[in-house]
Amino acid sequence: MTTPQQAQEPRPAKPEGRRSTGSVKAAAGMLVKEAGRILKKYSGRIAPEPAQAIRDCADALQRYRDAKQWDRAEDEAERLDELLHQHASFARKSALRETIENVGVAVLVALGLRSCLYEPFKIPSGSMMPTLVAGDHIFVNKFIYGVQIPFTTTVVGERWGHIARGDVVVFRYPIDESEDFIKRVIGLPGDTIRVDGNKVSIRRSGDAEFEELKRTKLPEKCRDDSGTQQVPHCELFEETIDGHTYVVRYKTNLDPRAGARRVGEWTVPERHLLVMGDNRNESHDSLAWTRQVEAVAADGLVSVKDLRDLTDEKLFSLTRPDDVSARGDASFDHILYIADHASDAHGLELEIWRQPVLGGEAVYRALTAGEGTETTFTALVEGDERFNSKSNAKQRERLLRIGGDVTALTVKSGDVAQDVVFRLNAADAVMRLRCGNAVCRTPGKIAEKVAEVVERWERDRSQDARQILDGDNTARYSQHWTSRSATAETFLERRYSKTGAEPVTPAGLVRLRAWRAPDEGVDLIRDAALAAVGSSRTAARQAVNEAGQDGWLVEDEQKFTYVRADTKGQVAFSLECGRQRCAGDRDVLALVRDIEGHVPSVIKDRTRLPELLPPGDIPGYKELPAAPVGERYEYDRIRLDATVRDVAYSLGVWVWLRPAEGLAGKLAALQAEIPNARVDDSVASGAIVGDGSAGHGIQYAFAVPATEVVIRMQCSAGLCPTPEVARDLAKRAYQKAHDASNFVDPAAERPQPYVPRGNVKGRAERIWLPLSRFWLPIR
């Protein structure tokens, strides 16, 4: 057993030799501090004399240390150490305790540096290729955006530095915050990001228009993680956003139907970010994140089938106007159905006659027939004030140049559309353009549309109408084209004279021109044939045959002309008989009766057109060689039927599942919002209805206690022209709302695209492994 005297025996003497100045300085400082601590804390357990000795020794040691008398300081330090060992050993720290405390301090310092200054990360995947590849080691600057309090989302000093578009940041994954992700910031709070395949556009907060990010295709090839193998079907682009320039890559062999092509629009909420990986098609980023929730879907209450059943419209598009699918509240949904409504006011139609056999002038006169206002292309341009300003001088000059070949033009204005007929003299072509008033609402707009048609025609006159007429960007169009048939397939001309040789005068000529099933219709052929001989139905004599069908007879000094159109059989013919053969009406009509006797055969068989006037029907006359028709295509037509998406033909549906204010509270709030609201029990007990004044449409709001939902519907006047239509839609929704499986999905996937600001750990700045890329900055 150890006695007190044994415990205070002196320790072995220190070996010979003096310590270095640094060692003495450090030891003296620690001993003075230790002596002060012990005297302060344990002075009551040390006898007065030893305590005073320790105090005096510590004071002397401090004086020698301040005076830099290191030899004396070393001796005094030994003496103080011995005094502490003899009289205060119970208060001195053991070696183990000293080690533990030192290690603890080191750990705390390391944690502080890691949490507030810099932290190393290893890249786990290729989502940021080519900027970063799997296996890269990087340093993250954690104080650049402020200091984040460890184990919290609180950031102190955010004003020190702001997150910028284009920064590469490390953050806690919003879906599972135990994981760290690294991506590039594309959208800041208030931004709207639009992605369409490999096109990324941004509308910054406060801006009205989207701006597409600038991209330049690079000649380099995509490489795999090792950097040795080329990746097929992959392209690199240098992209720039707000001064940040970096490289992204896209796959080029993706099938849009497989969903790999990214399309969408996202509006970033306050204190959140939208991020994307540089490996755009293979990055699990904001555009792909989803969470599983119980969610309501308003289209389960009113479907497209319901709308088709209960309204006059058949084509509908569904949108969610306020992006509720991306919001955190899955107990609310808002949808808008917009009908694709047929609109004649946006419709377009173009008919083209190329070198017509009856002549361009005759066709033009038949098309106008004294209707409409004959004007000039120049007058249309000058009639629009837009083209009289200096800013539009070049446009005016261009239009007048293009319209220089329009030699005749007639405009017939209607309630729905403008009919414009015009001739192109150099090409002997006639066109009729029907342009809806929503497209051609002013003379200048008519001129622009005519110029657009003429310009395309002049580029290549062999084009059909489909390549010449284009729709307006305010509507969607479906094409209805009259296929091009060769003129020889629908038209026949036979000519006879006594000699059977040219030249021959009109008085000595018998000519038949006949059409079977012409694309432009036999009525127009009839009018053009009369116009070709300077007449019309109002000027010609009417001749009725035995079947009660009427024809028109025209005579001049050299010939008689008879024109008939069989609308039912779609056969028309024009017979010109010179006065040498036909001395009067009786001769002409006798020849006409022979022709009409062959018409039934021609109606049944196109190839029998030549039988209308065979040589045997004109004794003493010989047939002249037929004028070549060739493979010419005289006529074709394109009609563009328009549909427009207009909120005047729309239905909005809102649904709240278990609203926080309760069913009655929510209904009361909606009643205050709906104009002219009143209680109407025809749909549901306590339902609210608004009568649709002030352009709001007919509105209903009602609760379904069985499933704890409140529903609001707003039907526009176009889609619901009567209150009964709106009521039927509301009743359908009320019935379906009694079964939660119709509109509640207990395991729905909902987008969760945004990174909370507090989840951001810092900005990735340097690569420190591999050595081949040591200390490279991260662009």
From TrEMBL:
Keyword terms of this UniProt record: Hydrolase, Protease
Stored NCBIfam families: sigpep_I_bact
Family named by the database record: Belongs to the peptidase S26 family.
Gene3D superfamilies linked to this entry: Umud Fragment, subunit A (2.10.109.10)
Protein name: Signal peptidase I
Subcellular location as annotated: Membrane
PANTHER family: CHLOROPLAST PROCESSING PEPTIDASE, SIGNAL PEPTIDASE I
PROSITE patterns: SPASE_I_1, SPASE_I_2, SPASE_I_3
Topological category with respect to the lipid bilayer: Single-pass type II membrane protein
